[in-house]
Specification:
about 150 residues, mainly alpha, about 70% helix, about 5% strand, globular
């Protein structure tokens, strides 16, 4: 399993670099596509992660309308707020979905903050589109190496 995670992050770095060079857009941070690719079989986790990222972006954007938040301060605030909101999601009770309950979680601890930073820098649609596409590419490459069984 450690090999899959390492390879996924490495592939994510390569794909992120290619996206940045060829298309001029970032996929939510250099390591993000590799982590997201590992969770593509769990869409609720991906949705929760993007939702936390969006909430982080909107909160910092709103705070920026009456506070001076630029540069390093803005970056740290997004990562910290993404971390805290992700922690809150992890503490929620399982959500009933049909006959079973689903425990909500998010990808990583700083991933939502990294995604929010790039939403702020280049736009929401651009970031989410690049993130989904690059993560799918990484996942496809992982399937070629390890087959379909990539569960964490």
């Amino acid at each position: 399993m450690e090999n899959i995670i390492t390879l996924s992050i490495g592939l994510g770095l390569c794909v992120s670099l290619l996206f940045s060079e060829f298309f001029g857009i970032a996929a939510g941070g250099m390591v993000v596509p590799g982590y997201i690719a590992l969770y593509l079989d769990r869409p609720l986790v991906i949705l929760a992660t993007v939702a936390v990222s969006l909430l982080t972006y909107f909160i910092v954007h709103s705070l920026g309308s009456f506070m001076i938040i630029y540069g390093r301060r803005r970056t740290v605030l997004m990562i910290l707020l993404g971390f805290l909101l992700g922690w809150l999601v992890r503490t929620l009770e399982p959500v009933p979905m049909g006959p079973q309950a689903v425990e909500l979680t998010i990808v990583g601890y700083i991933i939502p903050g990294l995604i929010a930073i790039w939403m702020d820098r280049q736009g929401i649609v651009e970031t989410v589109s690049a993130l989904v596409t690059s993560s799918a590419i990484v996942r496809l490459i992982l399937i070629l190496f390890f087959g379909r069984d990539l569960a964490l």
